[in-house]
Amino acid sequence: MASVHKLPVGPWRAIIETAFYANSVRKTNMAELYRLATKQPDVVTTSEPMYKPEIYGLPKNARVLVSNDGKVVGRTAKARRLVREMGKDRDMYQGLLREAVYELNRREALWLEGIVGLHPDFMLKAHLLSPVTDAKNMLDWGFNFTPWMEPWISEYKKSRVIDEPDILVLADPEWRHPDFPDGLVIIDETENCIAILGMRYFGERKKGTLTLAWTAGVRHNMVACHGGIKTIGNNPPVAVFGLSGSGKSSITNSLDHEGTLKKSEKVTVIHDDAFLIDLDNNISVALEPSLFDKTDAVRYRDPQIKYFFTAQNVAVTQEPDGKKRLVAYDVRNRNGRCIKSRDMFNHANACERPGYVIWLQKDPSLPPICRVKDPGLAVSMGASLCTMRAKGVENVPPEELKKLVIEPFANPFRVHPLVRDCQQFMKLFKMGTECYIMNTYAFGTPGRLQDIPKELSLKIVTELIRGNIQWRDWRSFMGLQIPKNGKELFGSDFDRKYKPPKDEEYLEYLRDRMQDRITFLSNKRDIDHDMDSAFIDPLVEARSVIDKILHPI
Questions:
Q1: Does 48 fall in a domain?
Q2: ∠ CA(499), CA(503), CA(507), 5° rounding?
Q3: Cα–Cα dist 196/198, whole Å
Q4: What Å distances lie between residue 440 and 358, 360, 363, 452, CA to CA?
Q5: Strand partners, 109
Q6: Tens digits of residue pLDDT in 389-425
Q7: Is the peptide bond before 151 cis (omega within 30 degrees of 0)?
Q8: Crossing angle, helix 30-39 and helix 135-144, to 10 degrees?
Q9: What residues are paired with 311 via a beta bridge?
Q10: Which terminus in the chain has less CB density within 10 A, N or C?
C-alpha cells in the first residue's frame, strides 16, 4: 500500500514536515546510525553478535548495542495530546510545537526513511527526524520497522497505492518544558504526523508510528489490532488481544503449546503485537518485521540472544576474558526490552482474516475460557476489555498497577474514535469470525482466587482450534457459554477450580464487574461522545438477567 504525495492541509503537518528540510538535517541510513550509536556516550557495545547485520548493510562483526534510559523505562500515556481534542488550547500547543522545532533545527539532526507494513496490501512510507545525539533510538526504529533500502524499496514500489500521506515522526528527547515534566506527545492522526518531545523511551517512537498506521488502516476499512496472530496447522488463524503481561506474546509465539500440539499442527506466527485486518480483501497484515519483546525471562547467555538486533534498559556485565554480556531478568529495572528477529520460529508476513478472536482479560469474575454467541456482545466485551497494567511497561504510580482497568480492545494507542473500532470489529464478527474470552489471571472472588497457569491457557487454545470443546449456556451471564467437558479435556479438578459457582457472593461480584463495563462504556457515550448504545445494550441485557437471579420477583 504505497502512500501518495499530498500537500499539507493543516498547520500540524506543515510545522513537522518543514522541520525535515532545515539546513541542519541530513538523510541517514542504518550503517551511519550504527556507527554513531557505537560512539553515543550512554550506549554500551556488548560482545553479543548482532543477528544477520548484513541485512541492514551493517558490518558482519556488528554487536548488540544496549541503551538505558534512566528513571522512565516505560510509556507515559499522560503526555499524549490529540489535536482533535485540544479545543481552545490548540494555539498554545501549536506555539509549543513551533518552538520545539526551532530548537531542534538549531542542532544537527538526522532523517531516516522507513516502511510500515510487510505485505503489498499495506505498505506505508514513514519518516523519522531526531537529533544526531539520538542515533541509537533511530537505529532501533529502523530495526523495528523496515528501513528504506533494498529489497524493501522494490516491494514498496509494487504495493497497492492508497490515498494517504507518508507518516511523519519527529522525536527530540532533549526537549524540556516546565509545564510538561513528563514530556509531550502531539498527534494529528488525520494527517499522519506526530511529535514526541522530551521522551527517551524507544517504545514511544514505536507505538507512535504504529498509532498512525493503525488509524490510516481504519480509514480504509481495516481493523486496527494490538494483538498477536498465527495459524496452527490447516485451521483458520487465531488472533489474541491483550496488553503486555496478559499472555499475548506467550500464546502467539508458542510453537508447541507446552507439548499439547502435534507435529502435524505446525505453527506459523504472523506477529505478536501489531497487525491490520483488511476486511475488503480478507487478509491480515503484519506491520513490523521484528519483535519488540520483554527480556524478563531471558537467561544469562540464553540461546535466543543470538536472534537479537538491539536491546534497551537491560544490564551488562563483563566476564574475566573481557567480553561484555547481557544480563536480563529485569535485574537493573523493570521492562527490559530487545528487538529480535522472527527467525526464532516459523513466520509469515500475512494470512487470511482470523477465524478466532480471543479477548485476553484479567477479570477474576470470568472462568478461563468462554464462548461469545452474539456479535454484539463480542464487541461489547472487547470494548470493555478488563486487564491489569504490566509492571514497568507504563510510567504510572505503583498503586495504579494493582487496579483492574478497562482498555478497549487492549489498544491504549488508539487515537481514532472508539466507536470506529466497535464498528470494524462488528463487521469482522458478522463475517463469521468466532469470539472467545480467556481469563489468564485468576478466577473467583477476592480472597478466594484460583490461579490460571499459562500451561492451562495454552492447552485451552489447542483444544479450541481442534474443535474439541463442547459448550453449554452460562445461565448467569446471558450470551456467554462455558465448557461442559472441561474435566475430560483439562483435568479432573477443572470444574472444581473454575466452574462458576451459584452462591450469592460470587453472583454479586460478577454483577459488579458487569456494571463496571457498562459504566465505562456509558461514560464513553455520554461524556466523551465516543460510543453507541448498540454496543452497550448487550451488557445491560446480561446484567438484567443476573439481577433477576439475585432478586427474583
A1: no
A2: 80
A3: 7
A4: 11, 7, 8, 6
A5: 25, 131
A6: 655 555 656 555 456 789 999 999 999 999 999 999 9
A7: yes
A8: 140
A9: 66, 338
A10: C
Confidence at residue 9, expressed as pLDDT on a 0 to 100 scale: 77
Those residues with Cβ within 8 angstroms of residue 387's Cβ, 6 or more apart along the chain or in another chain: 242, 243, 246, 360, 361, 362, 363, 404, 405, 406, 407, 410
Nearest Cα neighbor of 371 from 357, 386, 388, 352 is 357
**Cell digits for 526?**
455520554
| Start-to-end Cα distance in the chain | 59
Say how many domains are in the chain. 3
What's residue 401's pLDDT?
47
DSSP string, 433-463: -EEEEEE-SEEEETTEEEE--HHHHHHHHHH
- The H or E element spanning position 147 is strand 146-147
Cα 43 to the center of its chain, rounded Å: 26
Cβ proximity of 374 and 329 under 8 Å: no
Same domain, 353 and 339: no
Residues 321 and 467 in one domain: no
Does 315 lie in the same domain as 430? Answer: no
**How large is the C-alpha radius of gyration of the chain?**
24
551: burial class by Cβ within 10 Å (0-12, 13-18, 19+)? Answer: exposed
Residues 359, 338 share a domain: no
Residue 535 within a domain: no
pLDDT digits (tens, 9 = 90+) for 116-136: 999 999 999 999 999 999 999
Q: Which domain holds residue 183?
A: 11-43+53-220
Q: What angle do CA 189, 80, 41 make, to 5 degrees?
A: 105
Give the confidence band of 1 by pLDDT, cuts at 50, 70, 90.
very low
Q: What is the mean pLDDT of the chain?
A: 94
The torsion angles phi and psi of 328, rounded to 5 degrees, stand at -95, -130
* 211 inside domain: yes
Residue 476 has pLDDT above 70, yes or no: yes
Distant-in-sequence, close-in-space partners of 194: CB < 8 Å, separation ≥ 6: 16, 168, 169, 170, 185, 186, 187, 188, 208, 209, 211, 212
Residue 536 lies in a domain: no
